[in-house]
């Protein structure tokens, strides 16, 4: 694996653990003395790259509306083609061609 050049880790043991890894996570926080006395359970899961796109409420609404609109347009187009096909078929039958 490629070495993580952009990450500066001063602690030698942590640096050794991170070298060659595709990702590293820095966990930080402040605990009260009461919280320190309680056990914390950590569940590890395999790394999976997350989508980095974030939307505002308005942006999410516009994206959802565009998605629904494209589906509705496809449905209406199919329905119109169906109706036109039935109409042309009925016209041919009436004229006796």
Task: Detail the topology: elements first, then pairings.
Elements (H helix, E strand, L loop, with lengths): L11 H7 L14 H4 L20 H39 L2
For the secondary structure, the number of strands is 0
| Fraction of residues in H or I helices | 40-55%
- The topology string of helices and strands comes to HHH
Query: What would the principal axes of the Cα set say about the shape?
Result: elongated
Structural class: mainly alpha
Q: What's the mean pLDDT score?
A: 78
| Number of helical stretches of at least 4 residues | 3
End-to-end separation: 74 Å
Low-confidence regions: none
Biggest beta sheet attributes: none
Radius of gyration: 30 Å
β-strand percent reads under 5%
How would you characterize the overall build of this protein?
There is one protein chain. The protein is mainly α. The protein has a domain at 56-97. The protein has helices at residues 12-18, 33-36, 57-95. The radius of gyration is 30 Å and the shape is elongated.
Outline of this structure?
This protein has a domain at 56-97.
Properties at a glance:
single chain, 97 residues, mainly alpha, 3 helices, elongated
